[in-house]
Amino acid sequence: MKDHRNPVQMLMHWAERRPNAPWLFQPHGGQWQRTTWGEADAQVRRMASALHSLGLAPGARIAISGLNTAHWFLADMAITMAGYVSVGLYPKQQAEHVTYILEHSESRALFLGPMSDADEFMRAVPAGTRTVRFPYPAAPKGEFDWDDLIAAHVPMHGYTPPAPESLSTLVYTSGTTGKPKGVMITQQNSLFATAGGLKAMPPVGTERLFCYLPLAHMFERGAVELTSLYLGAEVWFLESIDKLGEQIVDVQPTRFFGVPLVYTRMQAAILKKLPQAKLDKLLGIPLVSTLIRRKIRKGLGLSRARYIIVGAAPMPDPLTNWFARLGVTILQGYGMTENSIYATVNLPHANRVGSVGREMPGAGLKIADDGEILFKSDAVMAGYYKEPDKTRETFTADGYLKTGDQGRVEDGYLYITGRVKDLFKTAKGKYVSPSPIEGALARNADLDQLCFIGTGLNQPIMLATLSAAAKSRPHAEIEARLIADLDEVNATLEPHEKIAKIVIVNDTWGIDNGLTTPTMKIKRSEVEKRYAALLQREAQTRSKIAWET
Predict the structure, then answer these.
(1) What is the fold, at CATH topology level, of the domain defined by 7-198?
(2) Dihedral of CA 533/534/536/540: which sign?
(3) What does the pLDDT average to over 30-48?
(4) Residue pair 238/247 in contact by the 8 Å Cβ criterion
């Protein structure tokens, strides 16, 4: 961190110090188009002038949509430089949420990035919203084009940094239930979280980052966009999801961040080329094992990665340990939008599998008497936009943020034991915390997504989807492994917690069918509603494994 300068000041710093050094790498047709620090600064200044020309009031909200691109960064910086507040929209966001967020935030203008559902998205944009199209073929047509505005306006000069307590961005929670809430992140929130993150995970040499998780989420904004500005690091953007594997290999980032599903898919890709039995045999040969580990790390795109972080959802311990055998140390972290994703993290020199790590510098961790995890620091939000009642409900009387998660601390490491709102009561009147049980059964590599459901049932049932590799294998082979793992997990559970059966469903749960959030968190209530009839039917049969027909 440099003298508490804000992100725009850091952009100016690098543009002055290293104007010809590349910052952003945007893929296009198999080629990487570079934007230097000097070029970025010039475009941001011109776009800030263009935004002023729209006659918006100081502090006006301006939204950014579409896939992750170099122009997402440039627009975010231009919004801040011009004295406005950015509002991120997720790719593939539900239309009703697009309308709600733009209306609720009172966004007066909207940057249009590349997207696959342009027509549906544009129908959801409120009338009267000023629109600026990014220069990508898949971006919908807007009132203005980025390049035209850049050419028509002179660079803005005389930048005055905003006050630390001023609003920087509105981050709308993806929300597993109800309407999204607008989390108010201040300049101070972002500065504190970024400084603490770099103190916990300091740079070593030249840094290179890969940008592919949604930029509407605070995690990617902090871990990639803000981090790149304070480290002077290169940022390489994903072109399309089907190219994720090959482009990570091209980039070989020095820091990599992912949700558990990303690592599950990596595991499946490895096992498709090297079945477990063959992999085990090769890892048992001393000289060969070293070569195999090195080749796998490079093949995953992680040969240079000093920090490989997982967050957003629990990472199953068996999966973490599986990667560790390959020399890939995955570090579990924890945080939420409301505290700028600044809470706890495991580190290479302080890693305890099963935990979400130790408190980050000054994060203010505390466990309440009822076991709820609390935080209090300068990274914690100013509140929910236009929702004072919900804001009050989210804080304790002495100002601690209530996470809704339950946990315990051992030797300084935080362990998540469940989520307060995820508790369900079976027909027997007994409460069950599903997350730890889902995590335990996730040891089975044939399973991709899991959701443990039991509201109103005599005994809970595990719904699950299959991994890509498992879908091509005989049912009998899969069932044998599932039954063995089911019995092993059930042996550790109380009678009312035991898994009655595992039901394999046909569809993958995703954003398109409304069963996950854009950050791949499963919407438990939506899954329960979708499969209500299946659950009631299967509750009447006694088999341990069932398949949706």
Answers:
(1) Rossmann fold (3.40.50)
(2) positive
(3) 96
(4) yes
